[in-house]
Amino acid sequence: MKCLIVDDEPLARKGVQLHLKKYPELQLAGCFNNATAAAAYLQLNPVGLIFLDIRMPGINGLDFARSLGRQTLVIFITAFAEYALDSYEVDAIDYLVKPIHAERFDKAVLKALAYERLFRESGDTAIEFVPDHLLVRSDRQFIRIALDELQYIEGLKDYVILHLNDQKIITAMNLKQIHQKLPQERFLRVSKSYIVNAAFVKTFDNNIIYIGESEVPIGNGFRDHFFEIFVQPKLIPQKK
Q: In this protein, which residues make up the domain named HTH LytTR-type (predicted)?
């Protein structure tokens, strides 16, 4: 998968380059110190992944991310932790705070590679809804998913990723469309990019819902509704 580094700090660009040496699956196509130059390059040279700073001269990283195509993945790398929630509103797959630690970088890259593989293998997919189940049609086959097994749903541009206990399934549908079809009392929209199955919500704080080893961000515009529901336990279905 081809990738770019877009960061106005030379040392930061060099650091990402050093980390990338352990990943032969990633081909570094270019380094840029501003989003305008990167955007010009992308017009003729599409890439699958961008390591992107946020605070840069000219176009900032958040605005640049909004302009990218649906199959270009973004990992934000910035010195400012306060942009973490904003990053998920533009469908970033991860957010790293400088200085970058190797283990955290590895986790983000492995996630990007897994998502790229999901995109590549998704093919012609669609979802049909039946009581208590989803039928995901892929390559002339149906995958039957019980709603009780669906932990959360992640929106990534024009796709959704269904997160099950031990499997991820990607299909072409936006988050709003799938949420309208699901039982609203069981599946809660918690940000622009995430829907959670309330039965799997066991631990949360003001900004994050913890589902197994996954962290699901709570968007600013969804926080009040989320807490209104979760202070009324009788409204939360219990997982059997």
A: 134-197
Peptide bond into 99 cis (omega under 30): yes
Q: How far apart are CA 234 and CA 47, in angstroms?
A: 47
Q: 166-210 pLDDT, tens per residue?
A: 888 888 788 888 898 899 889 999 999 999 999 999 999 989 999
According to DSSP, residue 239 is labeled P
57 vs 36: CA distance, rounded Å: 9
Report d(CA 101, CA 64) in Å as an integer: 25
Nearest to 154 by CA among 63, 239, 73, 236: 73
- As given in the structure block, the two tokens for residue 91 are 């469908």
The pTM of the full predicted model, rounded to 2 decimals, is 0.70
Helices (H) and strands (E) in the chain, counts: 7, 16
**DSSP characters over 8-51:** S-HHHHHHHHHHHTT-TT-EEEEEESSHHHHHHHHTTS--SEEE
Tell me what the mean pLDDT of segment 47-51 comes to. 97
